[in-house]
């Protein structure tokens, strides 16, 4: 039998205090529990929507004005959220984006807070090793740049060893693209001629011949028609990182056929020994060509002048895409 004091203590002091403590604990835990459950549900939902994970090491390929650039990129993905770090020589950027329905959309900004450098990318997943799309960015001179933008997985393709993945297995083994007597010396754009002049410390006239209003053609060693490129030294290209677009493009080329420009490739083993035979794989390489096409377009009519391709005119080739479809959206044709 409880006394009056015990009754008052239990009902008016003890129970309210315990209830207040339990209420306080629940008020802190329940919201956290709801947040935790929400995250779990969202994670499960994200997995059900898009199970493809693009985490890993990638390299990019794009142009910055008249310069071809390549970056090293590390991506981390959780659900549909993608974060990454981009490294281009001494430039570093942080990337934030979303990978949803096989489309990666993201923005990036310089890690150096004193520099106002930032950009955006929109890329479509082509396969497990390739994302293709466009980038727009602002660099140090506050100039707005825009370029086709390609991401390839480094385990599949190292862009520093060639424009295409099949170049990785070829470089250093063959000299067909630099030293073959069945092909012509590469065409050189005006900006490329100036860059090569700077890095080689040779005057343009020493390594190139001007054949049209704007374009040059590389000289052969000792100006002898039987010899290879003047910069092909010790079985390798001595200006590799600054090689012309025409070199990067090979064994693909552009031709004017019945009044329309086409992307073609030379399929003779004497021209390129590393080129794969699978036509669908070859078509995928057209994505790597898009940044190069952007830079070639102003000179396309001059590039198609037969004066540059006296030897290649006699080689067999296969048509792939018109330039119009290549520039707009080649994915529809692959």
Layout of helices and strands, plus pairs?
Blueprint: H1 4-49, E1 56-64, E2 67-69, E3 72-78, E4 81-88, E5 91-100, E6 103-110, E7 118-127, E8 130-138, E9 144-153, H2 165-168, H3 176-179, E10 187-188, H4 190-200, H5 204-207, E11 208-210, E12 216-218, E13 232-233, E14 236-237, H6 245-249, E15 252-257, E16 260-266, H7 279-284, H8 286-296, H9 300-303, E17 317-322, H10 323-329
Antiparallel strand pairs: 1-2, 1-3, 1-9, 3-4, 4-5, 5-6, 6-7, 7-8, 8-9, 10-12, 11-12, 13-14, 15-16, 16-17
Written overview of the protein:
The protein has an 8-stranded antiparallel β-barrel. Strands 10-12-11 form a 3-stranded antiparallel β-sheet. Strands 15-16-17 form a 3-stranded antiparallel β-sheet. The protein contains 10 helices and 17 strands. With 334 residues, it is of the alpha+beta class. Helix content is 31%, strand content 31%. A hairpin with a 2-residue loop joins β15 (252-257) and β16 (260-266). The chain is elongated. The chain has helices spanning 4-49, 165-168, 176-179, 190-200, 204-207, 245-249, 279-284, 286-296, 300-303, 323-329; strands spanning 56-64, 67-69, 72-78, 81-88, 91-100, 103-110, 118-127, 130-138, 144-153, 187-188, 208-210, 216-218, 232-233, 236-237, 252-257, 260-266, 317-322.
């Amino acid at each position: 039998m409880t006394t009056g004091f015990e009754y008052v203590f239990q009902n008016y002091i003890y129970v309210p205090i315990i209830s207040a403590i339990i209420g306080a604990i629940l008020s802190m835990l329940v919201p956290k529990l709801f947040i935790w459950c929400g995250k779990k549900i969202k994670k499960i939902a994200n997995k059900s929507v898009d199970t493809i994970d693009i985490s890993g090491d990638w390299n990019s390929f794009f142009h910055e004005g008249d310069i071809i650039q390549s970056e090293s990129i590390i991506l981390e993905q959780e659900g549909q959220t993608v974060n990454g770090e981009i490294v281009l020589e001494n430039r570093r950027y942080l990337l934030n984006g979303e990978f949803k329905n096989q489309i990666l959309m993201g923005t990036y900004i310089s890690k150096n807070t004193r520099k106002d450098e930032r950009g955006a990318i929109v890329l479509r997943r082509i396969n497990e090793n390739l994302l293709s799309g466009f980038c727009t960015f602002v660099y140090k001179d506050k100039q707005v740049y825009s370029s086709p933008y390609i991401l390839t997985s480094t385990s599949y393709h190292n862009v520093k060893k060639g424009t295409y993945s099949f170049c990785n297995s070829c470089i250093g083994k063959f000299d067909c693209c630099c030293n073959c007597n069945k092909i012509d010396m590469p065409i050189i754009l005006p900006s490329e001629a100036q860059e090569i002049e700077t890095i080689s410390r040779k005057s343009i006239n020493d390594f190139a011949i001007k054949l049209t209003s704007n374009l040059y053609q590389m000289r052969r060693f000792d100006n002898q028609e039987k010899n290879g490129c003047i910069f092909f030294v010790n079985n390798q290209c001595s200006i590799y990182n600054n090689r012309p677009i025409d070199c990067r493009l090979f064994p693909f080329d552009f031709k004017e056929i019945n009044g329309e420009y086409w992307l073609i490739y030379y399929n003779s083993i004497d021209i390129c020994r590393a080129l794969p035979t699978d036509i669908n794989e070859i078509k995928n390489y057209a994505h790597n060509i898009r940044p190069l096409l952007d830079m070639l377009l102003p000179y396309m009519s001059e590039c198609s002048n037969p004066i540059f391709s006296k030897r290649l005119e006699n080689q067999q080739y296969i048509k792939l895409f018109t330039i119009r479809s290549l520039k707009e959206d080649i994915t529809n044709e692959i």
